[in-house]
Each structure stands twice: as C-alpha cells, then as structure tokens.
Amino acid sequence: MGQRASAGIRRASLARPVAVVASEAHPVGSDSDNAAGAVQDAVDGPEDGNRAGGGRLGRELAARLLASVALMLVAGCVGAGWWHADRDRAGVMAAAARLPTSDGRVVFVVPRVPEGFIRYVSARVPAGDPVQYVAPGLALCGTARPRYAAWRAWMGQVFWLQYRLAPRPSACGAAVRWRIYLGQVPPGVSAGDRWSPTLAVVPAHRR
C-alpha cells in the first residue's frame, strides 16, 4: 500500500512540470491568435505598402511634371527672345540696305555740303594731313566760345566732313596743313582753291 502511494506521488510530480512547460510553451488559444494575426498582417501589410508606394510615385510624377513645365516655359521665353532679336536684326539690315551709299559709305543728306565738294577735298588733301574747318562764327580754334546759332548751323556739316574725310584729322595752330572754308570764303583766296563761292580748300601756308 505504501509503495503504491509513493509511486503515484512520483508520477504526479513528474507529470506536473511537463504539463506546466507544455502550457507555458503553448498557451491555450495561442495557435489561433497567432494564425489570425498572421492573416491580418498578410492582408493589411501589402495595402499599407501600396499606399506608401503610391504616395511616393505621385510625388515623383508631380515633381517631374513641374520640372517639365518649367523647362518648357524657359525654352519658350528663350525662343521668343531669339525670334524678336532675329526680326529686329533683319529689320535693321533691311533699312541699312536702303540707305544711299557712295564709295561704300553711307551718304546722308547734309545741307550746303555737296557730294562733289567732298570728292574734291578727298582728291586734293592727302590722307593723314591735318585739316582746320573755318565757318562764320564757329571759332573751333582758340579760346572764344562759338555762338549757339553758328554751332547749330555748322557743326552738323563739320562732323559730316570729318567722317567723310577720314583719316584727315582736325587740328589747330601750327599743325594745320589745310583749311576748309564753309559758307564764307575770304576775298584773298584764289580761284584755284575755290570749289564754289561758299566752299574752298586752301593750303595752310597761303592762309
């Protein structure tokens, strides 16, 4: 009798830890809960990933679209600027082609400075010789200031002659080789130096 009781106690003591270990390793209901969680993760996981991926893809597409629009706007502005520049350049070249020319130079209409007189001076005065321009009241040389009326009447012609007679520089004093009289020729100027009653070219040593 005592041996049966002690054997039962030993079996009970050995069985209890196994049951405890089994119950701790596999709690009641853990398999079903874990399976349900795995199923839920499998269902929810891809959907959340798709939402995140879709958001990133949308942002990338929006950024690319914005960059494309900005690039098209810049290209349009640059192209419009080039088109206007080409049109303006073509207009300027067409207007320049319509201007009258003489010996490859543009001829402007300047009162009282005939083209024939310019050719006469160019043929008579060597290139590089300094020239003094003399006109009534102009006083380009010296300390006297020219009168406004004389300046307004003659400076356009003087500038035009300087342009057309280049490279014959303007000068004053001892450097002058030739004097060009505009509008009024001194009485002592010989007929050979006169181009007309109001225009003359005189060597400086003759005065």
Summarize the structure.
The chain is an alpha+beta fold. Helices cover 57% and strands 10% of the residues.
Structural write-up:
This protein is an alpha+beta fold and 207 residues long. Helix content is 57%, strand content 10%. It is elongated, with a radius of gyration of 54 Å. Residues 14-26 have low confidence and may be disordered.
Uncertain spans, ≥5 residues at pLDDT below 50?
14-26
Domain module count: 2
Structural category? alpha+beta
- How many strand units? 6
Q: How does the major sheet shape up?
A: 4 strands, mixed
Assembly state (oligomeric): single chain
Shape category: elongated
Please report which band the strand proportion falls in: under 5%, 5-15%, 15-25%, 25-35%, 35-45% or over 45%: 5-15%
Order of helices and strands: HHEEHEHEEE
Count of separate DSSP helical elements: 4
Radius of gyration: 54 Å
* Distance between the first and last residues' Cα: 169 Å
| Average of per-residue pLDDT values | 74
Helix content: 55-70%
**How are the strands ordered across the major sheet?**
3-4-6-5
